[in-house]
Amino acid sequence: MEWWVSMPKLELHAHLNGSIRNSTLLELARELGEKGIIVFSDVEYVILKNDRSLTEVFKLFDLIHVLTTNHETVARITKEVVEDFAAENVVYLELRTTPKRNDSKGMSKRSYMEAVLEGLRAVSTVEVDIFHGSDVESHANAHTLCNGCGMNGTRRKKIYVRLLLSIDRRETREAAMETVKLAMEMRHLGVVGIDLSGNPAIGERTTFLPVLEFAKEKGLLVTLHCGEVPNMEEINAMLDFLPARIGHACCLQQEEWKKLKSSKIPVEICLTSNIRTETISSLDIHHFADLYNSKHPIVLCTDDSGVFSTTSSQEYAIASSAFGIEKREMFDLARNAIGFIFADDGVKLELEQIFDLAAERLQL
Ligand code: 6MZ
Questions:
Q1: What is one process in the GO biological process aspect for this record (predicted)?
Q2: Taking the model in full, what pTM does it have?
Q3: Cβ neighbours around 26 below 10 Å, total
């Protein structure tokens, strides 16, 4: 694993509440157990269980959301998740999360996101770059979020973090629109796009597609969970929408497959997630191989590193051994993903330099 950890990587599909350490979830569950809000032993079993169907995964998310419903906890998990990705040598992280309103905790979608930003400010093991713009005011804001920059004149390890605001398929059109407007207002704070996620068995495309069109018109980049379950009408509508990226693409039939290939829409591939949720029955029939061989733009991602007990390095190691791809090619696969990030060209250039230096260090 050491080599896969030492290789720089980009993480473009990671859900905040799916990436929480088990130890943190257990600690939070124990606290709520002591307050009599939940029964700890019931929850402990659910958190530690390893094999989960897609339906069970969404039940687990409902439980996780019970454990993470206050600003302090949202800030804490953000800090830990960023530190964990940085420890894996992820140099660019696009972290996605669903802004949540919870009146009983005095939480609005905006204050939820402010807690996420608070978490980014609290990161201590690595320097966090969350904005990289020419706009003077924005840059000044961003500077305050750059922890420990230039301390003692030493260069610290750095991770670029950008945020995607997720729309949950359960949400109403009004709630989804609120998220898009919030994303527009928070652009100067590192929000670069919108994600559509949530239980694929729930929600109608007629509810969210107009909202996503609006987001696109306003210049936000959009990525969609597409084809996690077979739903050809929806998959077709999603591909016709021409999102900047899609996640998963597991259940496409021949026609949709052709459409995807000709569209060149980059696909966020989450191997462990697909296998664990049985969206794909085994790696030897995973569509990664076809997309990789046909040079379709793809990027390897974790999806929910906490829920599926995986890491970014592990996903690269799995792909290399399952599909017989050499380290050098895996490195190139990671580097090519720079082309699909939602951050600006300045960041892309800096990431290319990071990869060039790493190639020398790793003697590739
Ligand atoms: C679809 C998923 C997902 O937003 O509360 N989420 N949506 N498919 C998946 N594949 C397994 N994994 C996670 O993070 C948790 C939320 O992300 C979405 C779900 O809406 C889940 O509630 P946040 O930080």
A1: nucleotide metabolic process
A2: 0.94
A3: 17
Give the residue from 290, 168, 309 showing the smallest Cα distance to 225: 168
Nearest atom of ligand 1 to the alpha carbon of 277:
11
b/e sequence 307-335, b meaning 16+ C-beta within 10 Å: bbebbbbbbbbbbbebbebeeeebbebbb
Phi-psi label, residue 347: left if phi above 0, alpha if psi -120 to 50, beta otherwise: alpha
Count of residues for the chain?
Answer: 364
What distance in Å separates the CA atoms of residue 138 and residue 169, rounded to the nearest whole number? 31
CATH for the stretch 3-132+157-362: 3.20.20.140
Distance CA 364, CA 349 (A): 20
Is 166 a pocket residue for ligand 1 (Cβ < 6 Å)? yes
Nearest residue (by CA) to ligand 1, atom 20, is 198
Find out whether the beta carbon of 57 lies less than 6 Å from any atom of ligand 1.
yes
Q: Tokens 């980009």, residue?
A: 10
Under 8 Å between Cβ of 85 and 306:
no
Distance CA 123, CA 251 (A): 38
Catalytic residue positions, numbered: 228
Tell me the per-residue pLDDT of 292-344, one tens digit each, with 9 for 90 and over. Answer: 999 999 999 999 999 999 999 999 999 999 999 999 999 999 999 999 999 99
Q: Where are the domains of the chain?
A: 3-132+157-362
Q: What whole-number distance in Å separates Cα of residue 98 and Cα of residue 198?
A: 9
Centre of ligand 1 from the C-alpha of residue 84, in Å: 19
